[in-house]
Amino acid sequence: MNKSIGSLVLLCLSLLSSATVTGQKYNTAIGMRFGDDLGISIAQRFHGNYTLQLEHQDALFTTTKQTSLMVKRHYGFLGKRMNVSMGAGGILRQGVNNSEGYVEHVNGGLGFTFGGEFTIGRINVSYDYMPGFVLGQNVEGPRFFSGSGVSLRYVVWQRKGKARETLKKLAFWKKKKK
Questions:
Q1: Which residues of 83-110 are buried (b: 16+ CB within 10 A; e: fewer)?
Q2: pLDDT at 20 over 90
Q3: What is the pTM of this model?
Q4: Using 50, 70 and 90 to split pLDDT, how confident is the model at 151?
Q5: DSSP secondary structure string, 92-122?
Q6: pLDDT at 115
Q7: Is residue 17 situated within a structural domain?
């Protein structure tokens, strides 16, 4: 019984401490997405802990091309390098006939995203789950859909942190430019 109370207290403390920590360690990250299909993923921080995330899967192994543009809010979890996120945005889905090479139908929809990510150095690993639904009356293909994937991205522009700036000021071993 004491072990479960201790675990509950530890969980509450970690959640409370993570609410005050900033959410991510990068400004721009670009890389590959491995999920229902192979794709690309670009994440750009635009305000505080908010990012704009563009993902595209080109129907290499499936019959559906998908492009999503999501606004995500990041919540720090155990520091700046690890966080959880949630958001929403637009999704464009295209049904493709791979044997004939033409687009069968195009549907626009609304999607949501829930996930987490970890950044170390210039490598960002992200996992997300994206449920969504197609808007409109004449829907070809499924109206409700979901997908998940892992993105492996390279951090192009890192976020400047107070610790990094302090270390640069304290770098007595480097010669000062005149």
A1: bebebebebebbbbeeeeeeeeeebebe
A2: no
A3: 0.71
A4: very high
A5: EEEEEETTTTEEEEEEEEEEEEEEEEEEETT
A6: 94
A7: no
pLDDT in the model for residue 177: 63
Residue 178 lies in a domain: no
Which residues have C-beta within 8 Å of that of residue 46, sequence separation ≥ 6?
52
User: Is position 4 within any domain?
Assistant: no
Task: Record the tokens describing residue 110, joined without a space.
Answer: 């609304």
Residue 175 located in a structural domain: no
Q: Which domain holds residue 135?
A: 22-159
**Residue given tokens 């293909």 in the structure block:** 141
CATH of the domain at 33: 2.40.160.20
Would the pLDDT of 178 be above 90? no
- Gap between the Cα atoms of 52 and 42, Å rounded: 8
Share of the chain above pLDDT 70, in %: 72
Rounded Cα gap, residues 57 and 33, in angstroms: 8
> What's the structural domain count of the chain?
1
136-167 in b/e form (b: 16+ CB < 10 A) is eeeeeeeeebebebebebebeeebeeeeeeee
Residue written as token pair 């997300």: 128
Q: How far apart are CA 83 and CA 73, in angstroms?
A: 10
